[in-house]
Structure formats: C-alpha cells, structure tokens
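Recall the central idea of this unit: under ordinary conditions, the amino acid sequence of a chain determines the structure it adopts. In this exercise we apply that idea directly, starting from the sequence alone.
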Amino acid sequence: MSTTTSVPAPSVAPLSEVLPADPTLLMGAGPVPIPKEVARANGIVINHLGPTMDAVVARVRDMAGYVFQTRSDKIFGLAAPASGAMEMAVANVCWPGRKVLSLTIGTFSARLAEMASNVGADVIRLESGDVRQPVSAEQVRRELERQKVDVVTMVHGETSCGVKTVELPEICRLARSHGALTIVDAVVTLSAMPMPMDDWAIDVCFTAGQKALSSIPGVSLCAFSPNAWRAVETHAAPRPHWCYDAVRAQKFWGEHQYHYTAPTSGILALHEALRLVTEETLERRFARHELCSTAMQAGLEAMGLELFIPQSVRLNSVLAVAVPDGADGARVRDRMTTQFGVEISGAFGLNIVRIGQMGEQCRPANLLRTLEALGRSLVAEGASLDVDAGMATLAGKLAAGV
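Accordingly, the structure predicted from this sequence is:
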C-alpha cells in the first residue's frame, strides 16, 4: 500500500499575512467587536460533558432568561448562526397541516416564511405594501379574524432594511387571543432595546451571539414559552431536523445528557457576553443603545444624509442610510475599509448602507470614527456633505447624553 500522496501539500502563509495589520472596526449589521472577556473565554476548550460544562450551561440559561425576560426554562444554545436558531424555532412548531401567517418586510422575515414552507406548513405571507413600513396590528387582526392560524412569524427588527415592528406586543397578544403561537426574530434587538418575552406574549424567540450580545458568531439562543413547548411535544414524528430538534436539545441543556458535541469555546464566550449584560443591567444597556443610536442619527442628518426609514418605525440597532445620488455605495464602503479601517454593510437590493448600533459598537469612539469615515468617503465620491457639522452634532449629543 503506497504512502505517497497524490495531491501535494499547498504552501500556505500564516494567517497574519491575510489579516490587516490593524484590526478593522466592525460597524455593520454584524458581527460586532467583542469585549476582551469574551475573546479570552473563546480561547478555552473544555469537555462538553461533565460537571464543569453542566455548571456553565446552568449559568448560561439563567442569564439568558434574564436577557429574554422569560421565566421559561426551555432555553437552548445551539452550534449555529442565527439562521440555525431560526430553523430550530420554525421546525419545532410548524409542520404539514399547520397554517402559518408570516409577516414579511424584508430578507429575514421572508426567510421565516421560506423555512415554514420547507417543513410543509401552509404559509400565508402578509406584507405592509411598503418596504419602509412594518405590518400593522390592524392588518394582523383582520387576517386572524378571516381564518384560523396556528403560528404567526415576525421580526422585531428587519436587519435588511432597518424597519422595527413597533406594534409587536399588540400583534403577539392578538395572536395568543386567537390561539396562535408566535415566533419572533430578535437577532438585532435582544439586549439592545426592550423586548420582554413573557410580558409581550412571545412564544418562541431567538437571537444570535454576534449581534447586540457582542459574542462570537456561530453560537445562538432559542427560547420556548410553556405554550410553545406543549406544541413541541406534540410535533408529529418524524422530526425534520436532528441537531435542531428541541426535544433532543433539552436532553443536553436541561438534563445534562449528550446531544452532540457542544461548541464549548463558543458557549464559554456566550457565558461572558451574557455576564457582561447582567453586570451592566438591561436598563442601563437599553439607555446606552438609545443614546448612541439617536446621537448617530442626528450626526448623519446634520451631515446632510437621509435616513431611509421614518423615525416612527426606525430600527435603532441597524441604521439604514440612503446613498446620495451619484455616489456608489460599494465604492464608499471599500474606501471606508481601506483608508479608514471601518467596515459597514451594504444592502439587499436597496440603495442604502447599514450602520450597526449594537453592543460594543455603541461606544463614542467607534461612532465618531465611523461617521467621519462615512462622510469623508462620500465626499470623495462627489457627495455634497458638511462632515464637520455632522461630527460636531454627534459629539455634542454624546456629551450631553441626549
């Protein structure tokens, strides 16, 4: 038997030759910068079973309950991006024969509808008719009175266009009064703004580690209310997913039994991210996010830019900014990265750029650096802006705390 390899080993330089000499400031729609405590925890590997992991998991669930503002003990972490948590949420309460009303605003609310359809549910999409407006509670009420629905899906904040479902509490309570479960995407809102799961009658809620929680990508959270858990337990077999099966996940997260090899380093990182949230407290964290986002919005407008979404339904954690006529958004973002070391996000077919205002992004130095990078890059594209006025307004708002 020959031991000679037929495919030669590639010559690969160290990772340091790929990464920029100075870290890029991540100010897009995620991932976001992480605190040193999170980075340190992510460098530790422990056994995924045993008393140490059991203690970590118990702590993560307790802290996650505080962040979700739920007394439910059915909270699971999973080795997946937010789309994996979305899949867990959908696949465990939607199945053939179930009717799902999906409130669709943009890319990620549409993904909920697609996933529900993929597991065999009968999906009805309900749209506002305007990409700059969320679906209203009145629209939902009319639909629920017209037909029997088992599940209603929605996003708290639509990351793709910067719209907030401002009537989410009313919609969730309406759904419950009509006997329907609710699934809420809180990927860019959990810990950035109030969203009390129990008080708002949310049944299934999920989020990502790498957004407002300021943890690493690849470990997410999904929580089920007692109502939702009863539906999970009545799910007709066979279940379509193994890793995302909530009953199997409960074996690990609730009973400390083997499910699959847990992402131990990522869970340790999530532990520290959640611990930092609890130390700051939700009240102070909400206030910090509100201050930073409103100050940034004022700076952008003082500079001469237009915010894409009306203030009444504007998502604070991901700001959508209209690209001025004549400017190329892709070139602007490239210039921001190469010349200023700041990265923001493009969009999904809209002529906007998106600025994240989540977790560690919401620090004054980050905001000032980002606004100047955006302004100078747009001016280089020919846009007529008053960068100094924008900077002065942002700095003034941050200093005044209003």
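The longest helix spans residues 282-303.
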